[in-house]
Write a structure and sequence with these properties.
Order of helices and strands: EEHEHEHEHHHEHEHH
Shape: globular
Strand content: 15-25%
Largest sheet: 7 strands, mixed
CATH superfamily: Alpha/Beta hydrolase fold, catalytic domain
Structural class: alpha/beta
Helix content: 40-55%
Length: 253
């Protein structure tokens, strides 16, 4: 099972992290969600934080469903950042009865083909890692994913999480493939969705957020003029207020 934290009572909210980070990225939101009257869960995907790398073919979406089953949570609000948002979309598409609402922060999307900026980033990261320059790859991620509002403490926090993920993943002795479940049909999503994008983010994620209202039956797009790719860390109080307002409307405690 995915390593996770769970606390509080009330409607369940599951926080899904970006792959630049781990479940610690939600430290700023955790107490506010508890104080608002929710049961709050956060988890580490495989190879991040305290969850080991996979030892057999796996699916992040299935991992999330298995975690909900183990916690006996029938229905949940999903709050996902970046790759966590992509996983949230897949969970909501495969098991729409399990997801009550979706708050997506600069989310990826199943089936999205990377544009030139995202391909260039991936190529540069691969080149640095293949050369053994892990520190260089960490700093590349900081430059790419954190917007101008991120302070030094936030940069250090993300630096620590990204370095830990690289150390865990590079130490793995074999590359375990993901399970091929087929591309999910986003048209099956029934949950209301808030798709947040950042003005300073890569074009891929801005385009995904703008496109989701054309694909989902009840979705709205909000662009933050100050944000990069990780708004919940760049301006945590403001982003937390946006999440809480959306949950109060669609998933009230």
């Amino acid at each position: 099972m995915l390593t996770h934290d769970v606390a509080g009572n009330g409607p369940a909210v599951l926080l899904l992290h970006s792959t630049v980070c781990d479940r610690r990225m939600w430290d700023p939101q955790w107490p506010a969600l508890l104080d608002a009257g929710y049961q709050v869960i956060r988890c580490d995907f495989r190879g991040f934080g305290e969850t080991p790398v996979p030892d057999r073919p796996y699916s992040e979406a299935q991992d999330v469903r298995d975690l909900l089953d183990a916690l006996q949570i029938d229905r949940v609000a999903l709050v996902g950042a970046s790759f966590g948002g992509q996983v949230g979309l897949e969970v909501a598409a495969r098991w729409p009865d399990r997801v009550g609402t979706l708050a997506l922060l600069c989310a990826g999307m199943p089936g999205h083909l990377p544009g030139p900026d995202l391909r260039a980033f991936g190529g540069a990261e691969d080149e640095l890692l293949e050369a053994g320059d892990v520190e260089g790859a960490v700093e590349l991620n900081l430059r790419t994913w954190l917007g101008p509002e991120a302070d030094d403490a936030t940069r250090n926090r993300v630096r620590e999480m990204q370095r830990h993920a690289f150390d865990v993943q590079l130490a793995a002795t074999e590359d375990v493939p993901g399970l091929d479940l087929g591309e999910p049909d986003l048209g099956k999503i029934t949950a209301p969705c808030l798709a947040i994008s950042g003005r300073y983010d890569l074009a891929d994620f801005r385009q995904i957020a703008a496109r989701l209202p054309t694909l989902l039956p009840d979705a709205r797009h909000l662009e933050l003029p100050w944000a990069g790719h990780l708004p919940s860390l760049e301006r945590p109080a403001e982003t937390t207020a946006l999440i809480l307002d959306f949950l109060a409307e669609t998933w009230p405690a």
